[in-house]
Structure formats: C-alpha cells, structure tokens
Protein 1
Amino acid sequence: MMCPPRSVILLALAAFQLTAHAANLQAGAFAQDITPRQLPSPINGSTKGNFAKTVNDPMYARSLAVSDGRTEIILCVVDACMIPREIVEAAKALAARATGVPTSHFLISATHSHSCATLASVFQSDPDPAYVAEVPARIARSLIQAHQNLEPAELAWSKDQDATQVFNRRWLVKADASYENPFESSRDRAWMNPGFNNSKVSQPSGPVDPEVSILAARAQADGRPIAVFANYSLHYVGGLPAISADYFGAFAQEITRRLHATDARYARKPAFVGIMSNGTSGNINNVNYAAGGPKRGPGEQIAAVAKSVGDAALRAWDKLQWKSTARLASTERDLSLTVRKASAVELARAREIIATTPRDQDGQFSNRKAIYAREALLLESFPEQVPVKLQAHRIGGLTIAAIPCEVFVEIGLELKSRKVLDDHFTISLANGYNGYLPTTAQHELGGYETWRARSSYLEVAAATKITQNLQEMLASLAK
C-alpha cells in the first residue's frame, strides 16, 4: 500500500490544525464603571467649558473580547466625548502586559457623548488631571476582565436599518444668501445646525447611513447572550444637564432588557454587556431641521432613540446565523498627516482679537471670533505633522475599520460600498482623537466641521489618504 506524498500529509495536517484552532472560538465581555469620583466634573461638548454637578447615569468602558484560539481581538467603547491617544495607549499597555494580547489587537473608542467627563482639551474645556491619571487603569480593567471572561462561544453578525433617527446636520446655503464664519469670511456654503425654518438654507449637504450593525456573542454551553456590539452613525442625542452616557448607555440597558439577559438562570455567569459604538457620524445628528420635532423633557429623547435603535438591533438579532468557527485577523498602521495652521497674517489677527475681546466672569470667551483666535494660537504649538492611527479587524465575514476622528458619513458609506467580505462597519473616535474628518468636497463647502481648531486640524486631503489606506488594510484581511 502506497503512502501519500509528504506534501499531501503536510497540507492535511495544516488544514486539521486550522480547523482545530477555529473550533476554539471564545468570547468574553465586561463593563467597567469609569464615572469620575469627584464632582463637579468638567464636560466636553461646547465651545465653552462646562461642569456637571450630578450624575444621571454612570459612565462605562464596555469591552468584548473574541478569540479563535490563536488570535484575540478586544473591542472597547468608552463613555467619553473623545479620548486622547495618550490615554488609549496607556490603557492598552497595561492590558497587554496582563493578557499577552498585542496592543494592535485592542480597539478603544469613545461614544462622543457630550455629557461625559472631559478627557481631552478641546475649545475651552480642559480635563481634571486627577481623573485623567486614573482613567487608563480603569479602561484597562475592562479589557483585562473581558479577556479573563473568555469562554467557548458562537459569534454572528447582521444588520438592519433605522432611518428615523439620523439627519445630515450640514445644510447648503442658498446662492443669494450668506453668513459670517469666525474668520471674518462669508464664503462658507454649508451651515451646521442652521435652525428650523432658516430661509437662508435649502437642503442637507450630504447623505445619512441608517444601518444598525451588530456583532453578537453567545455561550456554547447554555446559549445565553454574552454581548451585543452595535454600530450606528448618530453623533449623540443630548438633553441632560448632568453626567450621562447618552443614548449609548440607554441602548446598552435597552438591549439587555429585551434579550432577557439578566434572567435568574444566568446569575452565576459573567454579566451580559450591551455596547453601542459611534459609526461615521461627523455630520449626522438627531435633529430634523426640515420638519421639527416634539418637545421633550430631559432624557426623553435619549430613551426614544435607544428604543428605536434597539428595535432595529433586535430585528438584526433575529437574522443572526451563529458560527462556531470564524477567522480573526488585525492590522494597524500610523499615517502621518499635515496639520492645518494659521498663516503669519492670520496669527497676527488672532492676537489682536484676543487682546481686544473681553472675557466673561468665568474667564472664558463667549465671542466666537475670540474662541477661534485662541484655537489658532494653540494650534501653533502642534507639530507640522501628526500620527493618525488606523486599524482594520476581521471577525469571520465581518470587517471593522477604526479611525481616530469624527468621521463624515460619506467615508463610512464608501468603505461599506467597497467591502471585501460579507459585511463592514467603521468606528469613529477610535484609538485617539484627531478632530473632524470631512471629505475634500465638504471642506470646499466650509462650515463648522471644517473650521481650523483643535477639533478640526488635519490636512484637507486627510479623508482621501485615510480611506485609501484603510481600503488596502481591509483588502489584506480578505486574503
């Protein structure tokens, strides 16, 4: 009897080993409270620094870990307006030492809730140094415990739509109309949040993305839900005068309740974690300026959005096709991009504005020209180029891109249209913060999201370069 050739034996052994590893699919999740212990707490979300004196609902770092026996990826969404790269990398370093997972396999993003404690200095809001010092360890705790909670699991991914909660907030200015921006120019042709019944604008300047995507994990042993990691391209909702995780936190509660994930039979198991990540929502909000909307009390709109998006997530859940094997892979690269800075003439004018504009009693500026003049002077200390960390992850037939910016919806839609596997979504405000990311075409229209500040400073071609790099990275995961 003839033995098969050595090459055939090796190929068969490799296939067996690959299958054996793939069969070891595991998942674990954990939600770590990161609410500031000291109040009042600075909060981002306005051109003036504000403070929260009370807590409406806690802030969390919510993590989902997945492993195929060889590769592990941990996705973490933090209740924060934005997270500086320094905090992200400190948390990753702590978690990598504790778990052995490479830092490139951690994805840490912010929700962009405007009612969370400040972590990044933007406009006139600066963080509490004591809070900044303790946050990396608390985020790392979420990553580490999710890893420690790994157990044999099945994964699935799907999507549905909710077009009722997303509206493009940038409107086109009519040809015979104009408004003045903070740089003493009236050339802008896009107007963010122009208000209801504004006769100077005509229609939204771009599309929306109504998709609600979910990545779900359930335990092999008893079928209990471990986590739902969702993605929706909605900036935030707002409306609460206290620390709050906004609709992102409300969604987590909504999906937990509706999946009956707190049943008594699961009491001795790790708790289910619902997670909502921010998609490409840089120019998308929850206000329909074409029609208006009902007047809501504090928190009512947050609850309404969480229920509506939860409905879509449950429809996606009903379409899930569970898999006990899935290929995992990650890739990461730093892209160096130029910082937009003021010219010598513009800097001179900025200094003049600062010198002649009175401050409010709280020491801050209310005058918009002075606010942006201050930003021009602060940007002058930035390096000429900055690193922008990009990531691409594969979980079975799903790919996930990560960009450290407030990404315009057109970019997310383009990446979805060129998906290399079955499905794709993009997470904004991930692995750092590099301001808004408008497309080149939207830069030409001007408007708030393009105005030079620490909230918008990357070169005009940044979106094109980032998209091209991500397409290469995503394609490499499909091989």
Protein 2
Amino acid sequence: MTPRRTIPPLARGVLEKDRRALARLMTLVENHESAAEASMAAIYPHAGKAHVIGITGPLGVGKSSLISALLGHLRSKGRTVGIVAVDPSSPFSGGSVLGDRIRLDRAPGDNGVFIRSMASRGHAGGIAETTREVVRLLDAFGMDVILVETVGSGQVDVEIRDIASTSLVVVVPHLGDEVQSLKAGLFEIADVFCVNKGDLPGADGAARYLSEMVSLGTDRDGWRPRVVSASATAAQGISELWEALEAHERFLDEKKLRAGSERVRLGRELVELVRERVGDQLAQKIDDDPQLDRLLAQLQARTIDPHAAADRLFRAFRPET
C-alpha cells in the first residue's frame, strides 16, 4: 500500500484556511525559498477550481478602482475573492512601490477577501515571476474568484494569459488607447474590454470604436470580445462588467475549452521551468567548465557563430534517447 504523503504544516494551514499560513507561504514563494517546495507540491492537487480573471491596461486607467468596485459587487453576492496586485519594484528595496492593498477598499475583518501586493522585481510581461504560484495558493485556499492586476507598464501585459482564464483589458477615453490598442495587439489578449470612467465625455465614442474593431476581428474559438462601459467612481456598469466576465467563463465550460486552455498554460509553465533550470546549470558551469571555455573562446575569435554554439550546447545537455 502506498504510504500517505505527509503534508507540511504551512500547506496544511493553507488548506485549513489559516490566513497567517497563507501569507507566510506566499512570502517564502516570492523569496524563492527552498522551504516552500514541499508545501507547494502538497497544495497543487487542491488548486484548479477558482475563476482567475486577469486585469490589464496602461497606467492611469483606474484598474485598482475598478477592482475595488468589482470586489464590492462580488462580496455582495457572497463570493470569496483573492486579489493579486503586481506593482513596479522599488529600485531601493525591491519591494512593491504602489502598495495596492492600501488603495483597495474592503470591509475591515472581512475573511472572504485576501489581498496580496507583489513587486514585479524587474520581471517583464506585467506580472512577477512567482505570480502564478501565489494565484495557485489562493486557489487552494478556497477563493471562488481571483483577480490579478498587472503592472500596466506598457500598452498591454501579455503574460497575464499564462495565468488567467479570462483577460479584461481596461482603457479610458481621451488617452489614445483606442488607436494604440491596434498596435499593441490588445485584441489578441482581451476577452472583455472595459472603457472605464464611462461617465466622462467621449466614453460612448470610445466604446463604439472598440465595438466596431471587435466586429471586424476574428473570433477566438468562437468567442468575440465584449465591450462594456463602466465607471468605478460613479459605481456604474459594474454588474454589467461582471456579467461579461462570467459570460466568458461560462463559454469556456459550455464549449469544453477550459481543459485545453489550462493544458496550454501548464505547457508554457513547464517549458519555462525547464529553461530556468538549464539556464541556472549553464551559469554555474560557464566559468569553470573546459568545454564551455573553449566554446566561448571560439565565439570570441569569431570561428563559430552563437547559433552553432547553442546547438552544440543543446546536444551536450540533451539526454540520451
């Protein structure tokens, strides 16, 4: 008989909805502590139930305000909510600069909400390197919905699709987002568009423009992105926005696309982890391995090009088949 795997104390705490254990394990994960590995392995079978919504868009469009409004709407429906807010890193401490936990509005002592700010720590793509693991922890903790806010460092933070099952792209009137979105490829990212600050002049025009662009585009697996106008400050359009997000989640289930999407995301995660391990191994060897030293000398002498050198390394590291 196969012996039962011992669940580490922190993992057990997460599964028993201990908020302190959740916060401590998140910190270990963010700091890449080896002590987190066994706990993450133990909680993995318990994840995969939450609806993960990615929220992206340029700086200044009001993503945090919109998340705060969505949070209030979801809690009024009795849904538990985890929020992961990825902020730019401080050049001094490496920590989160904006501190979204302060900017998000929640009722004191509400145990149906857990908010975590993360520093991007220089990671590109709008998320932090360990965002996926933090989301997985909130999932295993039992949150119904997890909202992930990206950095918003550019027109679009593309890596959110590697984490979220539904992506919301937020724009506002008069910032040129309607035009720039075509260049940035937002239509390949967005499942739902939200024109925030919908009470301002020009919001209706922006929504119409996006709707026209969506109508000219190609459906993704039969889904055509929805466009919703909302105002977080005026509390308008929030229920309609959530309905659009839920509609995409229902679509994934009805068309039996969720498993395929998850498989793609897990495949990318697996490739990323293997690449990371090979890179670390190469970095350790590059200073003292004679073969690598000769290869670097050939590169420096221009007797071999980088692609040919990479092929040699790949063959050296490739396991025998």
